[in-house]
Amino acid sequence: MQKNPATSSIAVINQAAGGNRVLYDGLGPNALSRIDRDVLSQSGVRYVMIFEGVNDVGTATNDSYTQSMTYQRLITAYDQIVSRVHTFNIPIFAATLTPFCAPDSTIQSYSDPTREQTRQKVNSWIRYSGRFDAVVDLDKVLADPEVPSQLRSEYNSGDFLHPNVAGYQRIANEFPLDVFEEFAGGVGGFS
Prior knowledge:
Layout: H1 31-40, E1 48-50, H2 54-59, H3 64-87, E2 92-95, H4 113-128, E3 134-136, H5 138-142, H6 165-174, H7 178-182
Parallel strand pairs: 1-2, 2-3
C-alpha cells in the first residue's frame, strides 16, 4: 500500500482478536458487538473490511441443524454490520472464509463435511449477495486447487487453519488495491 501512490496515505487499523467470532464472545467480545467501538467511533474511517466467521462455523457443533442455524445467524449478523456501516456512508468490503479442513479431524477439529458445507454457503453469500461493496476472495487465494477445503500446502502453518508467513504474503500480494480507488468518495448506489 505504501508503494502505491493511490493508497500511500491510507492507514490500517487492525481490530482483530485471536479466536474471535461474529456471533459469540470468545477470547474477546464478538464482532457484532464491537462494530461501534472498533470501527465507527474511530476518527477518519473511510473503508471497513470484515474477515470473520471461520471460528463461528468451526466451533459450532457439526450437526446439520446447528450448522444451518449458524449460517442463518451469520448472514443476519453480516447484514446488520453492513447496514450499520452504510449508515455512515462508509463502504464495507468482506473477505471470504478461508479453508480450514485437514485430512482428518484429529489434525484440525474444524474438519468436518457439514462445517465445510456451511463455509461454502457463507462464502457464496459473501460473493453473490451484493450486500458488500467489494469482496476479497481469500478462499480462492489460499485454497488448494486439488482439495479446495484445505489450504495449499505452501500456505499452511501446520494446523490447516492458519496461513503461514508465505500465506499472509500471498494475501498481501493478491489484495486488490484498486478497491480503495473505486470507493474513494464513499459508498454509492445503495439505499
